[in-house]
Specification:
Length: 309
């Protein structure tokens, strides 16, 4: 009988282990590129190469946040100190990464404005190959991360997709890591275009203009990620699918809901606390546990029953 009321508190996403391995693989790739650029730049006297290597170190650092979140959440999944498990750690990491993205956008925008006001001499022979190498590394990183939800694409707007892969199922830690590499790739593409136009036509203003466009794109992705992960950290339910199914099940039993709280515990996992008013004096919480057990994604349920006199 007690097994009915035993609660499981491991709320990691279905692809947690796979995503953890892929993130560490991207860190290894970025670290190798970083070391090669810094050593190569030092040996051949290329300041641009050293600078890009240091930039790659910040990229690897952002990936490290995601990887450590996966590792820590897995190792402490059964730690009783985490009242509702470690499933939200990925959202916290995603929120942190979004803040870093916002700071990167500000820095790129600031540097672009400075270069508009005070143009600098560009060494095209070094800058263009470095930007191309960075683009290749970021494309490979995006491939390693497996093409999770693309930046700017909100599945919640598609009812068909929403049912199976709604905001409640999304791994925001992987999404943040993916946005990092895509943002870096976008900046590399804009940099290459700007540099080629500046070299060909002498339009030196194209380089900072490309920087401003890149900063705006990154800022938009950062805002979206902050809004989504921040809502989850504040226990704002990302969709009403589970809540609607709970209401329907209680109504089908001929009872009324006095109170209902549904929130996300981790990717694909929801918790619910409900207070039911029933005309059936002998109806106990076990009845509602059985009625709601088929609901996909409802991983933690607490029921209070209030019989009418």
């Amino acid at each position: 009988m007690t097994d009915i009321f035993t609660h499981e508190h491991v709320f990691l996403g279905a692809g947690h282990d796979r995503n953890e391995r892929r993130t560490w693989a991207v860190i290894a790739l970025c670290t190798l590129m970083m070391v090669a650029e810094i050593i190569g730049g030092s040996l051949y006297g290329s300041l641009a190469l050293v600078a890009d290597g240091l930039h790659m170190s910040t990229h690897a650092g952002a990936m490290l946040i995601a990887a450590l979140a996966y590792t820590y959440a897995r190792k402490h999944a059964n730690d009783p100190r985490f009242v509702f498990g470690t499933g939200k750690l990925g959202d916290l990491a995603g929120f942190t990464s979004a803040i870093i993205l916002a700071m990167i956008a500000l820095l790129i925008g600031y540097e672009a404005v400075v270069r508009f006001l005070s143009p600098v001499r560009i060494q095209f022979g070094e800058a263009i190959p470095i930007a191309a190498a960075g683009l290749l590394v970021n494309l490979l990183s995006a491939w390693l991360l497996g093409g999770e939800d693309h930046p700017g694409h909100d599945h919640d707007q598609d009812p068909e997709v929403h049912h199976h892969h709604g905001a409640g199922d999304r791994d925001n830690n992987m999404r943040a890591a993916y946005i990092h590499v895509v943002a870096d790739a976008a900046v590399s593409v804009l940099a290459i275009v700007g540099l080629l136009l500046a070299k060909t036509f002498g339009w030196l203003w194209m380089d900072p203009l490309a920087g401003i466009v890149g900063a705006l794109v990154i800022a938009n992705w950062s805002y979206t990620l902050i809004r989504v992960t921040g809502a989850i950290l504040m226990d704002i339910s990302p969709d009403d699918r589970i809540a609607g199914q709970v209401r329907a099940a209680v109504a089908a039993a001929g009872d009324q809901l006095a109170d209902l709280h549904v929130w996300r515990l981790g990717p694909g996992h929801f918790g619910a606390v409900l207070s039911v008013v029933t005309h059936e004096a002998l109806r106990e919480p076990a009845f509602y546990h059985d009625a709601l057990r088929p609901l996909q994604g409802l991983s933690h349920l607490t029921v209070e029953v209030n019989p009418l006199p």
